[in-house]
Structure formats: structure tokens, C-alpha cells
Amino acid sequence: MRAVENSDAADRDTMLLFGGVALAILGAGLILSNRNVRQLLGQIRPAELIQNAVPDVARYLKLRAM
Known about the structure:
Radius of gyration: 21 Å
Largest sheet: none
Oligomer: single chain
Shape: flat
Number of domains: 1
Distance between the termini: 57 Å
Helix content: over 70%
Number of helices: 3
Order of helices and strands: HHH
């Protein structure tokens, strides 16, 4: 067996990274292609989520400052 050179290891790591990203995109596409999931996501309002999260974040920052 030949020793793995540093550039070979970097190329392998890059290929694994892109493979993982491709699998994540494929998985997200499969999930979002489901009609029930799209209906549930359609009911979510980002502004409401942010308004509901602000008090929790403020409480967290207050506790962290103690």
C-alpha cells in the first residue's frame, strides 16, 4: 500500500463533504415532495415564530449574564 499524501487526503475529504451535501439535498427534496409536509410547512408563519422566540432568547441571555 502506498502512503496517503496530504493532497490525497484533502481531495478525499472534499469529495466526502460534497457527497454529504448532495445526500442532504436529496433527503430534503424527498421530504418536501410529500404533500402532507408541504401543507404543514405552509401553515408556519416565520414572523410568529420570531415573536414567540424573542422572550426565550432574552431569558437565555439574562441567565447567561448571571
